[in-house]
C-alpha cells in the first residue's frame, strides 16, 4: 500500500514519467481501496467465524406442541392393546366351548366290551355289521388307552375283510342312513393308524446253521408293513366311494379320535 501511495504522489507531481507496469499497479490499488470489504477473502473468513444471532421462531409454542404430540403418539403402548376385545364377533367376547357340543366319555371297559361284540360279528360272518359297529361309536372323549384299543379293533376288522369285499361293503355303508358320517370316521382312523403305526412285536426266533438260535432280520417290521398296506388299500377304496370330500371333512373336523 505504501508503494502505491508513493507512486501516486510521484505521478501527481510529475517528477518521473510512469511506466505501463506502474500504471497497472496504481489502477489495481485504487480498485482495492474502492471495493467493499466482502470481496476480500480474509475479511470474508473473519465474518463467517463470528456467531450469528439466532432469531426466535415466528410461533414460540410450535416446537413444544410438536414434542408433546411426538411423545404421546410414538410410544410402544399400542403394542399392548388387544384389538380383538373391541370386535363383537371375536372369540374373546364369548366362550368358544359352547360352539362344540359335549362328547360322551368312553372308557376302556366300554371299548373292551365293544371289541368282544365286534369279534362275535366277525366270527358270524357279518363283516359289515362289525365295521359299522366300530364306526358308529368313535372314541372322541376318552383316555389314550381307550382310543388306542379302539384303533386296534378297527384295524383288526379291516384286516379280516378280503380285498374283493371292500368296495361292496363301503358302498353298502355309504348308501345307508348315516353312512357318510361313518366313512368320515373310518378315514380318521385310517390316518391315525398311518401316523401311529403298529407296536413292534417280539422278534421271531429261527434256528441257525451253527445250531444256535437268532432273530430273523426284518421280522419285527413285517406286521407294521402289512397293517400299513391294508390301510393304504382301504384309503384308496374309501376315496373311490366317498370322494375327496371325505379327506377334507376329516382334516377340518375339530373332533379327534
UniProtKB/TrEMBL annotation:
Keywords: Cytoplasm, Cytoskeleton. PANTHER family: ARP2/3 COMPLEX 16 KD SUBUNIT P16-ARC. Belongs to the ARPC5 family. This is Actin-related protein 2/3 complex subunit 5. GO terms for cellular component: Arp2/3 protein complex. Its main location: cytoplasm. InterPro entries: ARPC5 (IPR006789), ARPC5_sf (IPR036743). Pfam families: P16-Arc (PF04699). The keyword S-adenosyl-L-methionine does not apply. Gene3D superfamilies: Actin-related protein 2/3 complex subunit 5. Functions as component of the Arp2/3 complex which is involved in regulation of actin polymerization and together with an activating nucleation-promoting factor (NPF) mediates the formation of branched actin networks. Arp2/3 complex plays a critical role in the control of cell morphogenesis via the modulation of cell polarity development. It is found in: Cytoplasm, Cytoskeleton. Residues 37-57 are annotated as: Disordered. GO terms for biological process: Arp2/3 complex-mediated actin nucleation; regulation of actin filament polymerization.
